[in-house]
Design brief:
Keywords: Transferase
CATH class of the largest domain: Alpha Beta
GO molecular function: glycosyltransferase activity
Strand content: 15-25%
Low-confidence stretches: none
Protein name: Colanic acid biosynthesis glycosyltransferase WcaL
Mean pLDDT: 92
Number of strands: 13
Largest sheet: 7 strands, parallel
Shape: elongated
InterPro entries: Glyco_trans_1, Glyco_trans_4-like_N, Glycosyltransferase_grp1
Number of helices: 16
Distance between the termini: 16 Å
Order of helices and strands: EHEEHHEHEHHEHEEHHEHEHEHEHEHHH
CATH superfamily of the largest domain: Glycogen Phosphorylase B
Structural class: alpha/beta
Strand order of the largest sheet: 3-2-1-4-5-6-7
Helix content: 40-55%
Radius of gyration: 22 Å
């Protein structure tokens, strides 16, 4: 099987566990894997594969591994790029190619379709090996850089929801695939919830505009006391102080608690303790949006129902059997869905959670997703 090199801007990143999940799943599928990143985070976890900083420890004898016939193709692709500095793209693409040749990589798979995908394509052409990339959200809808050129220059491209796939197909006639990010379902344990006289909700994510947390605070304000609701907000971000002030102004200080950022093992151990995850995702003013949120699948994997919005991949993840979908930025609908959830019996909520777990096992299992990606890598179809 091909040795797969994953390319990422930074690795590992607490809020981007989907990359690590995919690397682990591809490795479990039988591939030799490694990760190359422009920045390596200081992280205590030990990986059972190499994590290499791009451009580091380049040796002169590595140049013998280049395929000179690919230089013309690489230069043609570089000339087509309008949003990246061409000299830097060539220099780092060359360094990346030398490193990939040295570790004998057979396929390059880049996460995000900005500079990581561009450098991966340049390196692949210099080495005459196959290349693909996966797009996620802000790299498509907030800061898109010559995506059409990258689609045409790759062996295949992965989109994480149907809306994104449709958008890519309008950009270029390339080999465009659909594959939802997967969850390691064996690592998420369903624990029986206990009846309680209050509702325990959780929001998990960066505190930024596209997460829509401010709409959730507004929706809870008139009903939190009467429904005896408690909301834990997990995460940090640029809106944190603004949101804390909003909670005070809305009289929710006794109902909303900010717990800060938590490691991924905390998520696995605690998500099952909540009655419901609420994720009111939306498009930001700049166009940034979550396209296939992993947190929805992780909550569902531990049997926790979800209330979210009907945008992008959210509407492909959550169904009426596993939670509620509302229109983005609609406080009235969000409030109504919370009230409807509150009216369910304990048994009805438990059934909704069980259906959520079943849906993740069937449609979003990381190993199943990895087998599909592996097949594309091996066969380029």
């Amino acid at each position: 099987m091909k040795k797969v090199a994953f390319i990422a801007p930074t690795y590992p990143v607490l809020s981007e566990t989907f990359i690590q999940t995919e690397v682990d799943a591809i490795k479990a599928s039988g591939h030799d894997v490694c990760v190359l990143a422009f920045e390596i985070e200081d992280y205590q976890h030990k990986f059972d594969y190499n994590v290499i900083k791009i451009g580091k420890n380049i040796q002169a004898d590595m140049f013998k591994n280049l395929h000179l016939s690919g230089v013309l193709e690489a230069m043609k692709f570089i000339r087509e790029q309008k949003h990246l500095p061409k000299r830097s793209l060539f220099n780092y693409g060359l360094k990346l190619a030398l490193q990939l040749a040295d570790i004998k990589a057979d396929h390059i798979h880049a996460h995000f379709c900005q500079h990581t995908a561009a450098h991966a394509i340049v390196a692949a052409k210099l080495l005459n090996i196959t290349c693909s990339f996966v797009a996620h959200g802000h790299d498509v809808y907030e800061a898109a850089f010559d995506i059409d050129k990258k689609i045409l220059a790759s062996d295949f491209v992965v989109t994480v929801c149907k809306d994104m796939k449709n958008d890519f197909e309008k950009m270029a006639a390339g080999n465009i695939k659909l594959l939802h990010c997967g969850v390691k379902t064996d690592q998420f344990v369903v624990e029986d919830k206990k009846p309680s006289n209050h509702l325990s909700f959780v929001f998990l994510g960066r505190l930024v505009q596209q997460k829509g947390i401010h709409y959730l605070i507004d929706a809870l304000a008139p009903i939190a006391k009467s429904l005896n609701v408690h909301l834990d907000i997990i995460g940090t971000g640029e809106m944190e102080e603004q949101l804390k002030e909003r909670v005070k102004l809305k009289g929710l200080s006794n109902h909303v608690c900010f717990l800060g950022a938590q490691p991924h093992h905390w998520v696995k151990e605690n998500l099952s303790k909540y009655d419901c995850l609420i994720a009111p995702f939306c498009f930001s003013q700049t166009g940034c949006v979550d396209t296939g949120p992993l947190v929805l699948k992780e909550a569902m994997a531990v049997g926790t129902p979800v209330i979210t919005t009907n945008i992008m991949g959210c509407k492909e993840i959550v169904t009426s059997e596993t939670g509620y979908l509302v229109n983005e930025k609609n406080v009235v609908e969000l409030k109504k869905s919370i009230e409807q959830f509150a009216q369910l019996t304990f048994e009805q909520r438990a059934k909704m959670g069980a259906m959520a777990r079943q849906r993740v096992e069937k449609n979003f299992n990381a190993l199943k997703q990895a087998k599909q990606l592996s097949n594309w890598i091996e066969n380029r179809v």
